[in-house]
Structure of DEAD/DEAH box helicase:
Amino acid sequence: MRSPGKTLSKESSLTSAFVRLGVPASLSDVLAERDITAPTPIQAATLPDSLAGRDVLGRGRTGSGKTYAFLLPTVARLIATPRKVRPKRPRALVLAPTRELATQIEEALKPLEAAVGLSSRTVFGGVGQGPQVQALARGVDVLVACPGRLLDLMGQGAVSLDEVEVTVLDEADHMADMGFLPMVRKILDRTPTTGQRLLFSATLDNGIDVLVKRYLHDPVTHEADSPQSPVSTMEHFVLRVDKDSRGRVLADLASAPGRTILFTRTKHGAKKLAKQLVDRGIPAVDLHGNLSQNARTRNLAAFESGTVETLVATDIAARGIHVDDVALVVHADPPVEHKAYLHRSGRTARAGQSGTVVTLVTPDQRQEVRQMMRKAGITPAVAEPERSVLETLAPGERVVLSLDEARALVAPPQAQVTPQRNGSRSGGGRGQESSGSASRGGSRGGRSRGGRGRGERSEGGHAASPQASQRQPSQPGQRQPGQQGQGQGQGRRRHRHAERPSTTA
């Protein structure tokens, strides 16, 4: 581990665009090792002020690079005044609305802290408090937290915020939408008024103004892009469906090559739709608040790695999805608010790629969707779900597996049974999660797509199974269930079958 503040001897450090903005060379080198050499607009706009110690209010769309925009100045401030960690007293606090987003932040932070000798801990609900309390008792430099669990730990005396030097609120607008503002205010009230505060959001509205006026001191505001449509390379479409055709259209879009995210309004709707897709021969995993943390982590990992390419999610759970090659987002249930539409749609067209967004609208939803699109600043193309239209929105040969094959890909891991000397049998541990990514297969409109592979499923939801064997592509019109494949990435998207999804809902 490198000592705090120690820089690498790379010549690139001296001329790095990040160094010119004021980022310490030790941190710039970490980014360079990950092929991050040029700051995004939100980073270039905010870093000079945040590194100078100013309070910053930054607005940038999902995928714009907000995470490094607040992590870099946070770590830089801590290494500028190094001190030994104290039990229960973190020096920096990062608040995030969801467990998935908190985990994503932690993953981005780890290499930065390792390079300069800092420590961190992420805390959220849905898992046991024991390890979190123990880590805080030892002391950490940076605490990444969801508001609910943090308040619980504060109430138990497991953590104190009276020595926090930097406080970050990520996706503040989403915290407001979820009703977290009272909790956020209680937390911020316990941080020193002299500390630096950084607030980042995809939208800036009245809910955010309350926090800004109360907790930010003479903040500098930076807006890196339009508050409406996330990117100009994102195409928006509305498909007019009825109750009978809705299921068929969703199955058709989900069975096209590559990663697809389908959004529902409710947890039950997400679970139900994922099961319906699997029953149609389309492996899918769900992501919503009713899943255990382990299930959510495994399902998201299966989608991120490409082992399963169809994800059905709710709005709240979607905040933790940061996958750069999602080419199709489908609003199976149109959202109520335009901000939710923008956040959902922001899962595609990330990292400079283009993307397609499709909203399914029934006759009774047309008026509300029209108003929502107007508020979002979107003028979508409207069409009927004809075969030619669907193939334009999601190019590529549709692939439908047998029911057994689809269920095998999303089956839960089987416990290993080990005979005991006394004749009894005990269950073994769960199988290891597949770590190999599937190969990229096909393209949609020139965009790189992920291939289907293997993985595992968690309790309470669908995920890819490590026991499911990889298969060689079948000949046209033939199924080859259970055939072993030698190459990697021979998952569902590499199958070719003549069947179309059933027309029943």
About this structure: The chain is about 35% helix and 15% strand. Residues 229-414+429-500 form a domain with the Rossmann fold fold (CATH 3.40.50.300). The first strand starts at residue 56 and ends at 59.
